[in-house]
Amino acid sequence: MILRKDNFILGLVLGVFAPAVGLLIFKMYKFSVFSFKETLQYLTVEPGYRTLSVALSLSLLLNALLFTIYINSGRDHTAKGIFVTTLIYGLLVLSIKTFF
Q: What is the mean pLDDT of residues 73-79?
């Protein structure tokens, strides 16, 4: 199975994919009555981007879960890829919270 490989690129892909799934879960839980377009419109138009930064921060929890699973199973290269994408994603969230 591909998820059993110890590969840096796989970690990068998982690190990008997991927050996207987290955002989808956040949308389904918080904005279930709205369409995807309406939700995206609200998240980008809201002053201060408070809900967007909360959604992005919560979606990072899936990366933390994946990182823990891969570190505990000894697949360090994949965990490094997840960690790198988490850092980049975290800097994005921090810049949104700080500058906008």
A: 94
